[in-house]
Amino acid sequence: SIIIFGSINIDLVATTPRLPVAGETLLGEEFFKVSGGKGANQAVALAKLGIPTQIVGRVGADDFGTELVNNLQTSGVQTDNIFVDQTVSSGVAIITVSHTGENQIVVIPGANGRVNQEDVERLSHLLPEARTLLLQLEIPITAVVAAAKAAKGANIKVIFDPAPAQSNLPDELYPLVDVITPNEVEAAQLVGFPVDGEELAAKAAAVLLQRGVKCAIVKLGAKGIFCATAEEKFFVPAFPVHAVDTVAAGDAFNGGLAAALFEGLSLHQAVVWGAAAGALAATKSGAQTSLPDRFTFNAFLKE
Ligand code: ADP
């Protein structure tokens, strides 16, 4: 199976004619409540592709927590190792989106911020049965590093999405990572120079390999993907689709990539799978709702 060790969040989205200013009360128009969190999104991406998927993480002892766990189960994700933290709220993102496309986002990490060594221990019990571990950066970095160490010790492949963007990751993390998958913004934060387009992506990937990752994949949005290991370097163009909302495209990419590697396909084919899943997610609005199921995915790849 594939295990995701990461964040589980509820997004509360309000749409407004414009963003409110400080102290202002504004009448909005619509309200949506959607399941999110990069960890949960990547888990759902994999489960929808038919991969046996389990998530290890935390929610709060509130209605959101119950709902988040139920939604993951409905998508086919194994949730036995989600710990319900009695001391804190579930992770919540409060999002205001204006007609002009601007947004304001407040993220309360809540239970995600409490992920710690106890969760790493629960993870460790599952590792002998697993083939791959997926990590992101919406839980404390100490827990991410400990999880990567545990996976390394159990000989499990680690796929690490350094999102949301962060600079100064601990040096010890890189050699524990098999595949790192930044987008342009995240790659720039990690390497300390702007990353825009294939040439700079290649430079950034070289730096990341130098730091000890085995494979660096830089996601360049609608442009495509650059991939480098010690043995090979290649570029895969994005699938030409009509994009309506790229939210969760990066998570879909990681799901497609991990699914292909899980099924024993080549690195090149895995990047193509990632690109296909990312492109399909971009054609639909929403986060988890935009992630393709296996039927849609296979049909798209055959086209
Ligand atoms: P993130 O969502 O992390 O910012 P990207 O925007 O690079 O990452 O999207 C991840 C992947 O999804 C891309 O590498 C690409 O394969 C695919 N993708 C994203 N946007 C589009 C698009 N407009 N058209 C086609 N594919 C896309």
TrEMBL record:
It catalyses: D-ribose + ATP = D-ribose 5-phosphate + ADP + H(+). It comes from Nostoc flagelliforme FACHB-838. Pathway: Carbohydrate metabolism; D-ribose degradation; D-ribose 5-phosphate from beta-D-ribopyranose: step 2/2. The active site is at residue 251. InterPro entries: Carboh/pur_kinase_PfkB_CS, PfkB_dom, Ribo/fructo_kinase, Ribokinase, Ribokinase-like. It holds the Pfam family PfkB. This is Ribokinase. GO terms for molecular function: ribokinase activity. The keyword Magnesium applies. Homodimer. Catalyzes the phosphorylation of ribose at O-5 in a reaction requiring ATP and magnesium. The resulting D-ribose-5-phosphate can then be used either for sythesis of nucleotides, histidine, and tryptophan, or as a component of the pentose phosphate pathway. Requires a divalent cation, most likely magnesium in vivo, as an electrophilic catalyst to aid phosphoryl group transfer. It is the chelate of the metal and the nucleotide that is the actual substrate. PROSITE patterns: PFKB_KINASES_1 (PS00583), PFKB_KINASES_2 (PS00584).
